[in-house]
Amino acid sequence: MTEPRWIGIVLFDGFEELDAVGPWEVLAWWTQQHPEDGYGVTTLAREPGPVTAAKGMQLLPQHTFAEVPELDIVLFPGGRGTRPLMRDDAMLDWVRDRQTRASLMTSVCTGSLVYAAAGLLRDRPATTHHGSLAELSAADPTIKVDADARYVDDGDVITSAGVSAGIDMALHLVVRLAGEDRAREVRRGIQYDPEPPV
User: Fold this and answer.
1) What is the pLDDT, as a whole number, of residue 2?
2) Which end of the chain is less packed: N or C, by CB atoms within 10 Å?
3) Phi and psi at residue 73, to the nearest 5°
4) Is 196 inside a domain boundary?
């Protein structure tokens, strides 16, 4: 069996739990049920050891940046931990480097702020959490901010709105990579049929 094309979910201190775990659920269900589609999903962080998310959950990344397999798709979650990363030159350089090597860069919530700081969203449409739309505009005034979209697909960059919107974006990824029928199967498999009680 050939090596899969890898989707990497970036973890860092202060990431929003569902920003990473929601897409993970979608993508892991898909790739594990259908390895014949040729994709795998993994997690990565800059350093080894547990990463503490915004609300206290700890996750152990499967790879460090230095040892992760070559990534075809990068998924950058949001959370309060994105703010220091916007000023972290090493992280911004890593993001820029990945854009030159990956076929698709994706973000959830305020992960788009890091992409904006790295210059990935210049003159592009994009979105983020509804509470951070002004911050996204301030990070790069050339961004065409879409305040209403659950996700914005601009070809080789996809951004999504806050938290649960990452699940929608991940299902959209499955549509792009494996078709609508497969995405519907995944949605049924994870029983994602939102009917908010409030």
Assistant:
1) 84
2) C
3) -135, 135
4) no
What total of structural domains would you count in the chain?
A: 1
Q: Are strands 5-10 and 71-76 parallel, antiparallel or unpaired?
A: parallel
pLDDT of residue 1: 61
pLDDT of residue 9: 98
- Say what the pLDDT of residue 60 is: 97
Which region, left, alpha or beta, applies to residue 109 given φ > 0 means left and ψ of -120 to 50 means alpha? left
Instruction: Give the CATH number, domain containing residue 31.
Output: 3.40.50.880
Among this protein's residues, is 1 annotated catalytic? no
What are the tokens at 21?
């775990």
List, as one string, the DSSP characters of 45-109. ESSSS-EE-TTS-EE--SEETTTPPPEEEEEE--STTHHHHTT-HHHHHHHHHHHHH-SEEEE-T
Model pTM score = 0.96
Active-site residue, selected from the candidate residues 11, 21, 108, 109? 109
Residue 195 has a pLDDT of 87
Mean pLDDT (whole number) for 30-37: 98
